[in-house]
Amino acid sequence: MQASFWHNKWEENQIGFHLPEANPLLVKYFSALKLTQGSRIFLPLCGKSLDIAWLLALGYQIAGAELSAIAIDDLFRRLDLTPKITQKNSITHYSAPNIDIFVGDIFDVTPEILGKVDAIYDRAALVALPVEMRKKYSAHLITLTQHIETPAPHLLISFAYDESLHAGPPFSVGADEVNAHYYASYDITLLASEKVEGGLKGKCPATEHVWLLKLKNSAVNAS
């Protein structure tokens, strides 16, 4: 899947994946991260998610990565913020009080560019990528945060469904795949499984899984 696929989605406003409110599963299970107010949360492939406004309103700081400048321009308009825009190699950095968004290819975001984060919230990143990219993405996500003295816990939301009924994205990412990507580094807890009301895009039955990932002690000691 090429970057042009997502650029076209935003240019043509084909953003059915964009929720009109904060994700109910985030609202319900966010406390599992056990963060103090003011903590900095990383949202990979964040788009213009209303989850960002919800988290900011609770007093958290946001770091995000997103391919589409269209999405981020709209995000800052909705937040009524005027960002400072600077260039860091191939990454365009949008910044305002308590929010930093890095626009470009997420694989070009380095630990130095991202800076310290206290948690990761992945609602729409892993499931947005085809299978051949998901392994690269999950490894990159670990690399981005494993250098931190207190490694960041990770709240992950994934879908599970019969892919013969829907081609994705979002793609089906089941328990076996979550474990394949993250078990070596994280202790993985399934917090909840909830049926998608009306099915996935109205096409097929689907379940959303909410995962809590905490870096294993062995991984902490090795970092």
Would you summarize the structure shown here?
By secondary structure, the protein is α/β, with parallel strands linked by helices. The protein contains 8 helices and 9 strands.
SS element count, helices: 8
Helix content: 25-40%
Number of strands: 9
Overall average pLDDT: 88
Structurally, how many domains make up the residues?
A: 1
User: What are the segments in which pLDDT stays under 50 over at least 5 consecutive residues?
Assistant: 14-18, 218-223
- The fraction of residues in strands falls at 25-35%
**Structural class category:** alpha/beta
Give the class-level CATH name.
Answer: Alpha Beta
Q: Which architecture would the CATH scheme give at its second level?
A: 3-Layer(aba) Sandwich
Major sheet: 9 strands, mixed
Task: Assign the CATH topology.
Answer: Rossmann fold
Largest sheet strand order: 3-4-5-2-1-6-7-9-8
Question: What is the N-to-C order of secondary-structure elements (H for helix, E for strand)?
Answer: HHEHEHEEEHEHEHEEH
Shape call? globular
What is the CATH superfamily classification? Vaccinia Virus protein VP39
**C-alpha termini separation:** 32 Å
Radius of gyration: 17 Å
Please explain how this structure is put together:
- The structure is a single chain.
- 30% of the residues lie in helices and 26% in strands.
- The protein contains eight helices and nine strands.
- It has helices spanning 3-11, 24-29, 50-57, 69-78, 111-114, 131-145, 175-182, 217-222; strands at 40-44, 61-66, 84-88, 91-96, 99-103, 119-122, 154-161, 186-195, 206-215.
- It has a nine-stranded mixed sheet.
- The model is unreliable at 14-18 and 218-223 (pLDDT under 50).
